């Protein structure tokens, strides 16, 4: 029983690490940054609206950086990758999607 539990834990840790690598590889592309900048110019929200440089950063540190760089953000939520979230849009909210290791795995965006 204990070895099955250990195998499950190891598999889960490896799976979340793989997701971090995949998210970093896909989101660093220049076309994603260009799209986000286009969205930023069309947005009615003020200040910095996305942080691609925070992928792979510990979520607690990322939260501090976001709050420092945009003082209008007062609701930074840390959620586990794959968790359901409401689809409403708010200019004062950023969701940090992290893995079990506590690292950001998706580009944090105002919304």
Automatic annotation (TrEMBL):
Key words of the record: Protease inhibitor, Serine protease inhibitor, Signal
Family per similarity comment: Belongs to the protease inhibitor I13 (potato type I serine protease inhibitor) family.
One Pfam assignment: potato_inhibit
Name by which UniProt lists this protein: Uncharacterized protein
This protein's record includes keyword Signal: yes
InterPro entries per the UniProt record, alphabetical: Prot_inh_pot1, Prot_inh_pot1_sf
Domain of life, per lineage: Eukaryota
């Amino acid at each position: 029983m204990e070895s099955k539990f250990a195998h499950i834990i190891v598999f889960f840790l490896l799976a979340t690490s793989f997701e971090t690598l995949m998210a970093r590889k896909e989101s660093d592309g220049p076309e994603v940054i260009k799209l986000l900048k286009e969205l930023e110019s069309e947005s009615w929200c003020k200040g910095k609206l996305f942080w691609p440089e925070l992928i792979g950063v510990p979520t607690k540190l990322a939260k501090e950086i976001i709050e420092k760089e945009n003082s209008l953000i007062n609701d930074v939520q840390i959620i586990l990758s794959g968790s359901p979230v409401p689809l409403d849009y708010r200019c004062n909210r950023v969701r940090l999607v992290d893995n079990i290791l506590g690292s950001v795995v998706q580009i944090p965006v105002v919304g």
